[in-house]
């Protein structure tokens, strides 16, 4: 893994490397085969902001490269959300609020990243712009006789590959059901889904106005904290609690079901490592998780709310949509107003019960996804692979989407051994526990990396 943002910034400030050289390397990587299909458009502003050491001292990200998911408005650019149906729209007149905050911190925007069309999948496949391969899986497989690309995870697929390859230090994305944490897990990155209300969504094309969260992927927890501080416009307080003073739990139902052997080994090894370091980890049952299927039986928030946004576009241009995305959006068409209101009320009551069950715990630990990155060939566009695609999509989204329903916060940390396919460990809790989850992640990260 390449240096993180903070280490790079320190090297520039100490004169070990010039900011211009860093910017040029990021752009070269963005244009290389390692980032094939990761970017939809390159806009190397980092080259124009990288030569001022004085600026580095004043602004936390001056000149350092950040990639922007194609979901966000950037002044003068078209926001197409990975589609072709919106490519003819007028360019954005102003930056989205998240982009504006990154710019104010001095970020150098390097380009718009590829994504699942309209952010509606956890797999990462895009039939219009191609699909980038999961980068860590690629490098780990390079020594083998045959390389088989694996899915990058979605919907923030290009954002993940841009950070994993070194083209960007921060990948701005969104998380409605796992779209930051899934690609983070499959590419060996850190991905943080903050409490949704803590970062404004203004200027981001919506999938579900109830669940959408603006957040980012990075190469380290300390970079994640910096990114969150910029996006939320607040400081994360330092904590001085040692690991044994945190009370942690592992949910023994649903989130550990149907794990593949790679994930099982990495997750169990991680728990052994953390317990050996003094972590208090209890196994708990959280039966409320099994209620989610029934709660969403009428369709769920994402189909209903996305159909409200897309219905006129679909009526006129359905043939220009990814058929798998169109199919999921159209699941929202039959939902009646009373069913939607019932869902809103059921979710509120469910959140209260889950929050009560989690009282006294600082965080819950789970696998981010129960499976490692599947082979891209098995889920590539094509009706003959739709059944496998939707099976994989459901598994990838299962654990992460529960946190969005909870209106909670969660971080995915790499927990696999070198040479294995990437696996993520997710630490999570209910709304507004962001600081505790981030502070805990700082303690977990070196322990997980050590093995």
TrEMBL record:
- Pfam (any one): Amidase
Q: Which GO terms describe its molecular function?
A: catalytic activity
Q: Which InterPro entries match?
A: Amidase (IPR000120), Amidase_CS (IPR020556), Amidase_dom (IPR023631), AS_sf (IPR036928)
Query: Coiled-coil stretches, from where to where?
Result: none
| Annotated ranges, domain Amidase | 44-438
Organism's domain of life?
Bacteria
Q: Which PROSITE patterns match?
A: AMIDASES
| Protein name according to UniProt | Amidase
